[in-house]
């Protein structure tokens, strides 16, 4: 598995190696060892899946606050998405910035998003499935979010003029300016200094 840093070094892009022959292909889609080789010791405890019926569906930006903050490993197994990770760690040199990557069933890329980031995605095709691993249980009392269309963030969800399909719950999310300081990071000290 190929592991690359993104514009925000704590967010990683993982690309499985595909072995193809006349029957199709084989790929290793998760490797704890590949992450450990990059200094990451995440223990995932749950797999989740979402299905979106139409292109232009936006989910997010979501995160869980401490003590149930979640690290996620996102992959698209059907269709294609624009996946977004927004740094919400106070004191981080990339606070308020985001990374955005195309994840699709075809490219098999995955995004590793540590705790301290808000996450969301938009679907680029109908009938899209997204699978993701998390390292902490769902805790509704810690559920938080940020408005996907906050002008301060200016995220291009690549909707191509389509009116986004968004849940009523997500439409009520506050803007980035109302973010509670639930994650902190000592600037210049690396990911290990970021805490919740």
From TrEMBL:
<dbReference type="InterPro" id="IPR000888">
    <property type="entry name" value="RmlC-like"/>
</dbReference>
<protein>
    <recommendedName>
        <fullName>dTDP-4-dehydrorhamnose 3,5-epimerase</fullName>
        <ecNumber>5.1.3.13</ecNumber>
    </recommendedName>
</protein>
<comment type="subunit">
    <text>Homodimer.</text>
</comment>
<keyword id="KW-0413">Isomerase</keyword>
<dbReference type="Pfam" id="PF00908">
    <property type="entry name" value="dTDP_sugar_isom"/>
</dbReference>
<comment type="function">
    <text>Catalyzes the epimerization of the C3' and C5'positions of dTDP-6-deoxy-D-xylo-4-hexulose, forming dTDP-6-deoxy-L-lyxo-4-hexulose.</text>
</comment>
<dbReference type="GO" id="GO:0008830">
    <property type="term" value="F:dTDP-4-dehydrorhamnose 3,5-epimerase activity"/>
</dbReference>
<dbReference type="InterPro" id="IPR011051">
    <property type="entry name" value="RmlC_Cupin_sf"/>
</dbReference>
<dbReference type="InterPro" id="IPR014710">
    <property type="entry name" value="RmlC-like_jellyroll"/>
</dbReference>
<comment type="pathway">
    <text>Carbohydrate biosynthesis; dTDP-L-rhamnose biosynthesis.</text>
</comment>
<comment type="similarity">
    <text>Belongs to the dTDP-4-dehydrorhamnose 3,5-epimerase family.</text>
</comment>
